[in-house]
Amino acid sequence: MLSQITLEDIRPIAIGAGILGTGGGGNPYLGGLHLASIIRELGPQSMLDPFALQDDALVCVAGNIGAPTVSIEKLPEGTEMLRALRLLEEHIGRAFDAVAIAEIGGANSMQPVIAGLLAGIPTVDSDSMGRAFPEIQMSSFLFDGGVTVAPYAMVDAADNAAVVPQAVSDLWGEKIARNIAVSMGARAGLVSTIMTGAQLKATGVHYTMTLAHHLGCQVLAAQREKSDVPEAVANVLDGQVIFHGKISDVDRRVSKGFARGGVRIDSFSGADRLAIEFQNEFLIAFINGEVAVTTPDLICIVTEEEGEPVTTELLRYGTRVAVIAVPAPPQLKTGVALEVVGPGAFGYDVEFRPLPGGVIGLASSL
After folding, report:
1. Residue 54, exposed/middle/buried by CB under 10 A (0-12, 13-18, 19+)?
2. Is 141 a residue whose pLDDT tops 80?
3. Whole-prediction pTM value?
4. H or E segment at 194?
5. 323 - beta bridge partners?
């Protein structure tokens, strides 16, 4: 696994996390620029094997909350992660020993690295999704009820700050945080989900930063070799390319703190059509009107030639793309998890049919 993150690691992580983000998690290019500026100033960030954590270590989760489309125009001030972390430490009266990843997707893969580097503590190579999800209760750290999302701290670029000491449920924690984020301009830094090292080890989706880095390296190698990059992505993630075509229509809007909408892709022959609906992340895909893939399995869009991730805010008419279906990590496919991240949680009255296989969260796959 990665022992540290250097300037040279940012590009492959941005590619890999952009793909794993299933359209969401924030723009990985902008996140990479932010992380690079911090590493140039402070040096590489230490990455910690989750199983090297002491059982009684105190860990928090860091990431941005808001609509990815807003993040392109509303840039961060730069210290949101650190300020939110320190605010939460002040509230609980104790310092954190490490910071974990809320979601490996997009720019949110880099925020815990920035938070740890600024705070002088390691970042754990573990997240709670193995992808990205739009709502904060959609987290493997929370599924067994031993950990709660609150208390949490939120800050914005204008020095506004809030601490939410408790919520009656993680779903209510999301609702409160979303309203605060909307008030902060649909973008805020969030530090939450306080847990012990033992709890992280039991519930996290491990080694996903290393996976993102490995995936990005394989994409860059396939680009150099001029081989089939979408197939290389599918091979790394034990997935399958389910569609090739050109984006023919995009419906995208910001609503209640989320980027919502859909995209239509026509096959190059014109004979088939794929439609995807999203709420920050790609949630369900239909081929010729029939359900092909649903959350929590990953729906990843990459450019046809280069295999670069296409996030929801970068969907453009005429872009030639490949769509890849990837099996979700096992932590997202239990009965309890599906109540929170399955198609029904997003209002789709369809049965989840898991894709076979899967490598996300498995150290042996790297």
Report:
1. exposed
2. yes
3. 0.95
4. strand 187-196
5. 243, 301
Measured N-to-C along each axis, helices 28-42 and 111-119 cross at an angle, to the nearest 10 degrees, of 20
CB 245 within 8 A of CB 265: yes
pLDDT of 177 > 90? The answer is yes
Tokens of 12: 């492959």
Q: What are the backbone angles phi and psi of residue 174, rounded to the nearest 5°?
A: -65, -45
Give the gyration radius of the chain's Cα atoms. 19
Provide the 3-class DSSP secondary structure of residue 29. Answer: helix
> What does 273-317 look like in DSSP terms, one character per residue?
EEEEEEESEEEEEEETTEEEEETTSEEEEEETTT--B--GGG--T
Answer for the pair 153, 162: CB distance below 8 angstroms, yes or no: yes
Residue in this structure with the two tokens 């999301």, named with its chain if needed: 174
Distance CA 167, CA 152 (A): 10
List the 240-255 sheet strands across, edge first. 290-294, 281-287, 273-279, 258-267, 240-255, 320-326, 298-303
The CA angle 42-81-21, to the nearest 5 degrees, is 100
- Angle of the 7-20 helix axis to the 208-225 helix axis, nearest 10: 100
The DSSP secondary-structure symbol of 355 reads P
Query: Residues 6 or more apart from 93 whose CB is under 8 A from it?
Result: none
**Comparing C-alpha atoms, which of 97, 202, 197 is closest to residue 143?**
202
Each residue of 193-215: pLDDT tens digit? 999 999 999 999 999 999 999 99
